[in-house]
């Protein structure tokens, strides 16, 4: 491995045989993407505050399920009262 100074750039980059064929700009971009990937992994692995987020997701899921279930429940209750009303009207 050799150290390669960036010339007009302010960054010194570590280069090895796998990256020798890349242009300097491509190599700097590759380093930037690698750095962003590593930072993203670190953020995703943090466990602080995850319990609160998990509880919020569970509550949101329950709210969505309840809202979706209310539509079919309302239709079933309406059908039952309509059938009862029809039965009572025909009996009188």
Briefly say what this structure is:
The protein has about 90 residues and is mainly α. The protein has helices spanning about 25-45, 50-90, and strands at about 1-5, 10-15.
Chart the SSEs and their pairings.
Elements: E1 2-5, E2 12-15, H1 24-45, H2 50-91
Write a concise keyword list for the protein shown above.
2 domains, 9% strand, single chain, mainly alpha, two-stranded antiparallel ribbon, 92 residues, disordered N terminus
Structure description:
There is one protein chain. The chain has 2 domains: 2-45, no CATH class; 48-92. The longest helix is centred in the last third of the chain and has 42 residues, at 50-91. 70% of the residues lie in helices and 9% in strands. Strand 1 and strand 2 form a beta hairpin. It has helices spanning 24-45, 50-91; strands spanning 2-5, 12-15. It is rod-shaped, with a radius of gyration of 32 Å. It is mainly alpha-helical and 92 residues long. It has a two-stranded antiparallel ribbon.
